[in-house]
Design brief:
14% strand, AB_hydrolase, AB hydrolase-1 domain-containing protein, AB_hydrolase_fold, Rossmann fold, alpha/beta
Length: 242
C-alpha cells in the first residue's frame, strides 16, 4: 500500500531492517510506450552550436501548439520544464490556462552546490546518458549536449521579482493562468527557499510541497505526484464551478 518505501531485511538476524526514505531512492520507471519517431524532422543542417536558452525552448512550445492548432493549453513542467512554464506565463500569458511547475528556479545561484554529488542525482545522470543515446535523433554526443546545457545553466534563468510580476493575478484578471509552484520537502537540486520565493512573487499562485520526496518526486512517489497533478488539472477556475 505504501509506494516508494525501500526496506532492507537482514535474513541472518531475522529482525533488523534498514529504512531508506523515498527521497534517497530513484526507482525504475514502469514500462513505457515504445518511442515513435515517425514525426521526427531531420536535423542535418541545423546550427547545433546555437546557444540553448529557456526563451528558445519556450518559443518551441508555442511553435508546436501553433502547428497543432491549440490556442490555450496547460503545462506540467519538471525542473527545466518548470522554468519553461514560468517563461510561458511571463511572455505568452494568454496562451496558458494553468501551470504545475515542479522544481523550477529563477537563478543559477539557487542551484544547490552539492546537488551533483547526490547518489540519486548521479544515478539519474547515468540513466539520462543511456536514454539520450537510445532516443535522441541527433548524431551528436551526449557529452556535447551536456556541455551546452551546463553553459545555459551557468547563466540562466536570470529572473527576479520584477520578472514574475509580469504574470497577471487572478485577483484582477479572471483569465490569468492558474499557477502552482510545487516541490518536494527533500529537494536537493535547488535551494529549499526557492519555491517559497517564487510563490511570493506570483500573486495568487499556490505553493505545494510534497512529503518524503526530492527533485525526482514523480519517480519516488508517483501515486502522490499523480494525485496532485489530477487535482491541479480538475480544479475549477472559479468558486462554485463543477
Amino acid at each position: 500500500m505504501v509506494s516508494g518505501l525501500s526496506i532492507k531485511v537482514d535474513a541472518r538476524a531475522g529482525k533488523s531492517c534498514e529504512y531508506i526514505a523515498p527521497w534517497q531512492t530513484l526507482p525504475e520507471l514502469p514500462p513505457m510506450p515504445k518511442a515513435n519517431f515517425e514525426g521526427t524532422a531531420p536535423i542535418d543542417g541545423i546550427d547545433l552550436c546555437r546557444p540553448l536558452t529557456y526563451d528558445l525552448m519556450t518559443e518551441d512550445v508555442i511553435g508546436l501548439m501553433d502547428h497543432l492548432g491549440i490556442d490555450k493549453f496547460s503545462t506540467v513542467g519538471w525542473s527545466d520544464g518548470a522554468c519553461i512554464s514560468f517563461d510561458l506565463a511571463m511572455n505568452f500569458t494568454s496562451r496558458l490556462d494553468r501551470s504545475f511547475s515542479f522544481g523550477g528556479t529563477y537563478s543559477p545561484e539557487n542551484i544547490n552546490a552539492t546537488a551533483a554529488e547526490s547518489p540519486v542525482f548521479l544515478e539519474y545522470m547515468e540513466r539520462v546518458q543511456e536514454e539520450y543515446k537510445k532516443n535522441s535523433p541527433s548524431k551528436g554526443s551526449f557529452h556535447a549536449f551536456e556541455e551546452r546545457m551546463n553553459t545555459m545553466w551557468g547563466s540562466l534563468p536570470d529572473w527576479d521579482a520584477i520578472s514574475f510580476a509580469k504574470i497577471p493575478t487572478r485577483y484582477s484578471d479572471p483569465n490569468a493562468p492558474i499557477m502552482w509552484v510545487v516541490d518536494g520537502d527533500s529537494e536537493e537540486a535547488v535551494t529549499r527557499s526557492t519555491p517559497g520565493e517564487i510563490h511570493s512573487w506570483i500573486w495568487g499562485s499556490d505553493l505545494v510541497i510534497l512529503p518524503g520526496v526530492s527533485h525526482f518526486a514523480f519517480m519516488q512517489d508517483p501515486e502522490t505526484f499523480n494525485v496532485m497533478v489530477e487535482r491541479f488539472l480538475e480544479m475549477p477556475r472559479f468558486p462554485g464551478e463543477l
